[in-house]
Design goal:
With 341 residues, the chain is mainly α. 68% of the residues lie in helices and 0% in strands. It has 18 helices and no strands. The longest helix is centred in the last third of the chain and has 16 residues, at 319-334.
Length: 341
């Protein structure tokens, strides 16, 4: 699974004074203040006159239901108008719509075509998306070296997501010779710009001493940054650091808190570890039914070792407890982890 990137509202700085500039700015000020209806009323006439900035912003508003009913087909219509004028940001968003099949029939080759148009104009987001398509073989023949080439173009523009992707290619030796130090260098650049996945990755490198000198305190620092942005793998990792007292003062209750946050995002490692702490009664009340529930959920999400943990608990449970744990696991998963107690 991979994430295609797109462009949010366009905020342009227009030289000189004109009615167009004044009206666009009024719309932008309204949007930034949360008044999307006013923004729409300012941008619609401009968009109908062919203004690509306004067209992209209307597309964004329709795509996200900002101030108007969500309508992906209408979003595509406005993006297309701007894209056909050669406007790179519109081409990026139109490619994303084709990639995800939003407002149009899903067509990865067409997504690549639009991404390429923008990428060849130097757009870093488009270059990153082209790299993703080559890395995963979507709409093009899979080609890791070509993915690296596009990632590097965007990374050299200091686009954080491209830097993170390039770091991953070096870490895994995909399209380039494996080089953990080079991976760490790119991860660090992206992490310092706030990329959560890069922060999680550089945290792992500090924890394991790969590409950098092992440093649990530094690992915990980066994991925490990513965890606070909602990165589930980092949340599970900072939970482990608190559980074991590595890089932070040991605090099993804090470990439980982070495991629970990650578990509710579907992270199987966190789910398994949460089950173990419930079984042991560490950082949380001892509860074998909850332990069985989390082990069962973790196993359903691909943690094979959790099946052994679940089965081991059953030897100490009554049939009624097993039935209750199974029921709770089913409710928890069917509610997308909103009802797990």
């Amino acid at each position: 699974m991979f994430r295609i990137f797109s462009v949010a509202l366009i905020a342009v700085t227009l030289s000189g004074f004109s009615a167009r500039a004044a009206n666009f700015q009024k719309g932008l000020d309204a949007a930034l203040a949360g008044d999307f209806k006013m923004a729409f009323s300012e941008w619609l006439p401009l968009a109908e006159q062919g203004d690509p900035d306004a067209q992209v912003n209307l597309g964004f508003m329709y795509q996200n239901g900002e101030g108007i009913p969500e309508n992906d087909a209408e979003a595509v219509r406005w993006y297309l108008m701007a894209a056909e004028q050669g406007y790179a940001r519109a081409q990026v968003n139109l490619g994303s719509m084709y990639q995800h099949g939003e407002g149009v029939v899903k067509d990865e080759a067409e997504a690549v075509r639009w991404f390429r148009m923008a990428a060849e104009q130097g757009d870093a987001i488009a270059q990153t998306n082209i790299g993703l398509m080559y890395e995963h073989g979507k709409g093009v023949i899979k080609d890791d070296a070509e993915a690296v080439r596009w990632y590097r173009m965007a990374a050299e523009q200091s686009y954080a997501e491209a830097e993170a992707s390039l770091g991953l290619m070096y870490a895994n030796g995909k399209g380039v010779l494996k080089d953990k130090q080079e991976a760490a260098r790119w991860y660090l650049m992206a992490a310092e710009q706030g990329s959560a996945r890069a922060q999680a990755s550089i945290g792992f490198m500090y924890q394991t001493g790969k590409g950098v000198e092992k440093d649990d305190t530094e690992a915990a620092r980066w994991y925490l940054m990513a965890a606070e942005q909602g990165h589930d793998r980092a949340q599970a990792s900072i939970g482990f650091m608190y559980q074991t007292g590595k890089g932070v003062e040991k605090d099993v209750a804090e470990a439980v808190r982070w495991y629970r946050i990650a578990a509710e995002q579907g992270n199987a490692i966190a789910q398994n570890n949460l089950g173990a702490l419930h079984e042991l009664g560490e950082g949380v009340l001892k509860d074998i039914v909850s332990a069985h529930m989390w082990f069962n959920i973790a196993n359903a999400n691909g943690a094979e070792a959790s099946a052994e943990n679940r089965d081991a608990t059953e030897g100490r449970m009554s049939p009624e407890q097993i039935a209750e744990a199974t029921r709770r696991a089913r409710v928890c998963m069917s509610s997308s982890y909103s009802d797990c107690d």
